[in-house]
């Protein structure tokens, strides 16, 4: 149970519910380290029911490694690559290291990421979770944000968590995550340690 997080959870569930109904979208959880963003992402992903979950976490040591985060989040969906149009398929295959050559055109890669996520959303919808977005490599971030801005007719909810000062371009819905209110912190302590 998450204490003192009803507003944040409601905002995440709203995005997921809309996506399940075919009106996809993205939301950014913004807060300092240790405020509970990862716990909120986990709780939201667990409430998706039959929706598929694809997930990645930005890693500081891989932030200069092009397509590292994209590889992690899309790898479980590579079985659907053949459903993509050839130019998009070639761009995604190259970005994921499945073909020789570079990812080429950034538009084709972004479109391919969106198409592959849409394939992964069949039949029950998809929750795409990206934690520590501030450490996602630039190439992956560009492709994921391209897709995030085009989810309106897809059954995809994209949830991004980021440290407070890191930019996330083009995702209008932001939920601020702050430290727990004193009453919620006391309730949490009581439930875990019998301290009140």
Automatic annotation (TrEMBL):
Superkingdom of this entry's organism? Bacteria
Please give the InterPro entries that the UniProt record associates with this protein: AAA_16 (IPR041664), P-loop_NTPase (IPR027417)
Q: Domain Orc1-like AAA ATPase, which positions?
A: 2-153
Q: Which UniProt keywords apply?
A: ATP-binding, Nucleotide-binding
**Could you tell me which SUPFAM superfamilies the record lists for this protein?**
P-loop containing nucleoside triphosphate hydrolases
Which Pfam families does the entry link to?
AAA_16
Q: Which PANTHER family match?
A: TESTICULAR SOLUBLE ADENYLYL CYCLASE (PTHR16305), TRANSCRIPTIONAL ACTIVATOR DOMAIN (PTHR16305:SF35)
Q: What is the name of the protein in this document? A: AAA family ATPase
Q: Native species of this protein?
A: Sphaerimonospora cavernae
Q: What is the lineage of its organism?
A: Bacteria, Bacillati, Actinomycetota, Actinomycetes, Streptosporangiales
